[in-house]
Design a protein that fits this description.
The complex is a heterodimer of chains A (349) and B (367). Chain A has 349 residues and is mostly helical. Chain A has helices spanning 2-29, 34-48, 67-77, 83-95, 109-144, 149-163, 166-180, 199-237, 240-247, 252-269, 275-281, 284-290, 295-304, 308-336. In chain A, helix 9 (240-247) runs antiparallel to helix 10 (252-269) and helix 11 (275-281) packs antiparallel against helix 14 (308-336). Residues 48-63 and 345-349 of chain A have low confidence and may be disordered. Chain B is an all-alpha fold and 367 residues long. Classes of the chains: A mainly alpha (349), B mainly alpha (367). Chains A and B meet through helix 1, helix 6, helix 7, helix 8 and helix 9 of A and helix 8, helix 9, helix 13, helix 14 and helix 15 of B.
Chain lengths: 349, 367
């Protein structure tokens, strides 16, 4: 089993190379690559003047570029070199943990990313606690009270949450409770007068801003988790060992909590490692909607600003997190379920 | 594949006909269809959604600035699908495209027996209204039933055409990514070996890529249109179906009937096409609604962020964006959000019903 996990960790390397190479080439070899386009737009923007102001905001920051910026781009990406050569150069820098310099903020990419992490981690951890704190108890109650009024009513809620993407939930919440009723602030992580507040006031301010985004975050994973919990508990309640336990005179309640529940938590563990991505990377859509200056919004802004060093940095970090998260999930499963033997029959890739 | 077609709404008739003509309609399929119909929530959602889809195919007759019929001096005109009918055709003093709403008013005042039959919503999704400035709330008088947006375009008209584009996009996406996924997945599961290994690694790479993010990178580099967007989404979205098909082909291949078919001398093409594929159809059908929901969600998100279809294409995402840029016009967000929620709920109901119809998990609940 240990060898299996060691092999899995080693396999991160080729996958990581594949992902970064692909994205790197994408930013370079697609016809009308970024540099040509930047140059073209720079000349066009000069001619158009302020007329481009009215276009959609997806084209923000596509304005004229200074000679220095163009020079920076060419140097960083080595546009004069062949793309593979440039990729190898980029990779060499990465090996010494140098993600390069952001062309927009003129700061090291890693510093930019690190400065956004506290915000993203706050939302990630809060979402995690809320999701597990609500879904596991709710799933248990729904399984025990299967086909009762409570189950049916909560099913409607769960279903709605499952069907609607979280960004639509976010937009609906924002329009109703922030813009319409004015109960919550519209945007941002903290208020503009944050630094003047007392400690208690600061905490309150953060949570006041966090209510709506957190609901949107939780709505995304809430339904899946609840139904997973419910279904796996019901499978176990129907299993022979629970029947035996009750037949031997065990109280139903303790049969559920001492026997069935522990086994039903196994499926929950299969996705536990993926929370690593969620905690740090979050959802750029929700961060964009609520204008929360986290990791996701940085990724979005870097795209809009064509800040490719940051784009590559985001890809590096989110793909690494995703892969490590997958392995963590498998380790979790191996820990909670001793029957699982990874790599024994070779079927688990 | 013929089983798919039998899932159409007139299946009951097909069954009766098949009894008469002794067509062998798989009793399993009939059972699944009956089970699907018995799940009311999913069945009625399917009926409503299919009707909406069919209606939206003829949206030009329901939501359009062109009249359906114009009767002028005893002659009938049908401008809907015509190229262009200029104003002087109807005795107006201009030679550009007729304004049928004004023409209707004009004929009413003339009282010469000429008349115009307008669609239910007499606006098209592109026309900006010169007379009104800014967004106007819903009004029955102006026939802007859901109001107008910032440049005076009718929201209902844009919703309807946006629905057609979103559904069309998801369906096209579905067809392409399923064809690719089924072909590659079947080959992986059936032949295994080096081919399987290579594609496994490839899929792992593909799955690790932040999907929406890479699409945004592409969209920020090339000018997107419908087909480029479909192409990119298929390029990065074929893996889900491939993986499912690989697993189910792998399972089916190990079963006796495949060995039997082989022993009887069937070639690879026949074993896959005639034996394995029909047995994996439940996997495919079960995934369809969720793929459609995924397609709509992804397109709307891209449009919302400004990386999707180019304006002024009617799109739900662009409307959401307009609604959230300033909150002075809440009817914009509410119309679009309600539409998205309703459509996705119906799609999900259908999906759950199909899943239950194909795989009835009867929980033996223990009390």
């Amino acid at each position: 089993m240990t060898t299996y996990f060691i092999r899995r960790f080693l396999l991160i390397v080729p996958t990581f190379l594949g992902v970064t190479l692909l994205v790197f080439l994408l930013t370079r070899v697609v016809p009308g690559g970024p540099l040509e386009r930047l140059l073209l737009e720079a000349s066009m923007a000069g001619a158009e003047g302020s007329a481009s102001q009215t276009t959609d905001f997806g084209s923000h920051g596509r304005g004229p570029l200074s000679e220095e910026q163009i020079q920076e781009y060419s140097e960083y990406f080595g546009f004069d070199k062949n793309p593979f050569h440039a990729y190898v150069l980029w990779l060499g820098k990465l090996l010494v943990f140098d993600l390069g310099i952001s062309t927009k903020y003129d700061e090291p990419v890693w510093k930019e990313i690190r400065s956004r992490l506290p915000v993203s981690i706050f939302y990630g951890v809060a979402t995690l606690i809320l999701t597990y704190g609500v879904c596991i108890p709710l799933g248990i109650v729904k399984a025990i009270k299967h086909k009762t009024v409570f189950d049916n009513v909560s099913s409607i809620l769960v279903f709605t949450g499952y069907a609607i993407p979280s960004y639509v939930v976010a937009i609906a919440l924002l329009t109703t409770f922030a813009a319409g009723l004015d109960w919550f602030p519209l945007r941002g992580f903290v208020s503009s007068h944050f630094h003047t507040l007392s400690f208690f006031g600061k905490v309150l301010d953060i949570f006041h801003h966090a209510v709506l985004p957190l609901i949107a975050y939780v709505a995304g994973s809430f339904a899946f988790m609840t139904m997973l919990m419910k279904n796996s508990l019901m499978d176990n309640l129907a299993a022979d060992y629970v029947r035996t336990a009750v037949a031997k005179g065990l109280h139903f309640r303790s049969a559920v909590f001492n026997h069935a529940l522990r086994n039903s938590l196994i499926p929950i563990a299969t996705s536990f490692g993926n929370n690593l991505s969620l905690i740090i990377a979050g959802s750029f859509l929700i961060e964009f909607i609520f204008n929360i200056n986290g990791f996701g919004l940085l990724g979005f802004n870097s795209l809009v600003n064509r800040d490719y060093p940051v784009v590559m940095g985001i890809v590096v970090i989110s793909s690494l997190l995703f892969m490590i998260g997958n392995i963590l999930s498998d380790i979790c499963v191996a820990i909670v379920d001793p029957r699982v033997k990874f790599g024994a029959d070779g079927s688990n890739q | 594949m013929w089983r798919l077609s039998t899932l159409g709404s007139n299946l009951v008739q097909t069954v009766q006909i098949s009894n008469v003509f002794k067509l062998s309609l798989d009793p399993q399929t009939v059972k699944q269809w009956k089970r699907f119909r018995s799940i009311k929530r999913g069945y009625y959602s399917a009926v409503i959604l299919v009707s909406l889809l069919l209606l939206s195919c003829f949206a030009e007759l329901l939501v359009n600035s062109r009249a359906i019929i114009v009767s002028y001096e005893g002659k009938w005109y049908f401008p809907t699908y015509a190229w262009f009918i200029s104003g002087d055709t109807f005795g107006l003093d201009y030679d550009w495209e007729t304004n049928y709403r004004e023409l209707r008013q004009h004929f009413k005042e003339q009282k010469e027996g000429n008349w115009v039959l307008m669609p239910l919503v007499p606006y098209n999704p592109f026309e900006t209204e010169g007379t009104t400035v800014g967004a106007t709330p819903p009004s029955w008088e102006t026939k802007h039933f859901l109001g107008t947006d910032g440049v005076g375009r009718d929201i209902l008209a844009r919703l309807v055409y946006g629905f057609r584009i979103a559904m069309g996009f998801s369906l096209v996406l579905l067809v392409f990514s399923y064809v690719a996924g089924i072909a590659i997945g079947c080959a992986m599961g059936y032949w295994g070996g080096a081919f399987d290994l290579v594609f496994q690694r490839l899929i792992e790479i593909w799955n690790t890529i932040p999907f929406l993010y890479v699409i945004m990178i592409v969209a920020s580099i090339v000018e997107t249109n419908f087909w480029i967007l479909v192409f990119v989404m298929v390029l990065f979205g074929w893996t889900a179906m491939t993986w499912n098909m690989r697993t189910s082909t792998y399972k089916e291949k190990a079963r006796e009937y495949v060995n039997a078919a082989r022993a009887l001398g069937s070639g690879n093409a026949r074993v896959i096409g005639v034996h394995i594929l029909p047995n994996t159809i439940s996997v495919i059908v079960t995934f369809i609604p969720f793929s459609i929901a995924g397609g709509i969600t992804a397109l709307t998100a891209l449009d919302y962020l400004g990386f999707g279809l180019r304006p002024p294409t009617p799109s739900w995402g662009a409307q959401l964006r307009e609604g959230t840029q300033s909150f002075d016009h809440p009817w914009i967000v509410w119309s679009v959000a309600t539409a998205i929620i309703l459509i996705l709920l119906m799609v999900t109901f259908i999906g759950e019903a199909i899943r239950e119809a194909f795989d009835p998990k009867k929980f033996t609940y223990y009390e």
